[in-house]
Amino acid sequence: MQSGRELCAQDKIAPQDESFDPTILKEPPLPMLDNTLIYEVVTDLKTPAAKVSMPDDSVQYVEKMGWKVQVFSTSDFFLADSIYREAVLKFGNEEVEKVFNLPYYKIRIGNCLTREDAERFLTRAQAIKYPDAWVIRTQIKVRVKADIY
């Protein structure tokens, strides 16, 4: 029979290393402290996206919450790709994007600032070929006039 003293695992205490000092870490600034997060909350705008297809000094794009029309969703990559190509042909001037949110590929069209604009676009999409299309609130790219100095 063994005594209770032999069964106790806490007899030896490991030495503690207390040399770590979190105040010397080189952490990036918190967004709330350098006002970038506050700017996003107040203006609903993020840092401007890369400038696209316009002269650098005239127009830029920013991301903002808005509306798109989702015309199709599937887990089949090849089917999504063919629907995407078809939508690009049918909606020539509108932005068509293929989004992957595991496990679905989603085909979305347009960049609408208001729900009413998206509803009009939905009617057009349903008349063309997509009777099961619906409106979705998501990030959109908005063209804004660039500041010229």
How would you describe this protein?
This protein has 149 residues and is of the alpha+beta class. The chain has a 4-stranded antiparallel β-sheet. Mean pLDDT is 76; it is low at 48-52. The protein has a domain at 56-145: Alpha-Beta Plaits. It has 4 helices and 4 strands, in the order H-H-E-H-E-E-H-E. Strand 2 (96-101) and strand 3 (104-112) form a beta hairpin. The chain has helices at 4-7, 36-43, 77-90, 115-128, and strands at 59-74, 96-101, 104-112, 134-145. The longest helix has 14 residues, at 77-90.
What descriptors fit this protein?
4 helices; alpha+beta; single chain; 149 residues; Alpha-Beta Plaits
Mean pLDDT: 76
Per CATH, the architecture of one domain is 2-Layer Sandwich
Tell me the span between the first and last alpha carbons.
89 Å
CATH topology of one domain: Alpha-Beta Plaits
Top-tier CATH class of one domain: Alpha Beta
Portion in helices: 25-40%
> Class by helix and strand content?
alpha+beta
Please tell me how large the radius of gyration is.
27 Å
CATH superfamily of one domain: Sporulation related repeat
- Strand order of the main beta sheet, please? 2-3-1-4
How many H/I helical runs?
4
The biggest sheet, with number of strands, parallel, antiparallel or mixed sense and barrel status, is: 4 strands, antiparallel
Low-confidence stretches: 48-52
Number of strands: 4
* Helix/strand order, N-terminal first: HHEHEEHE
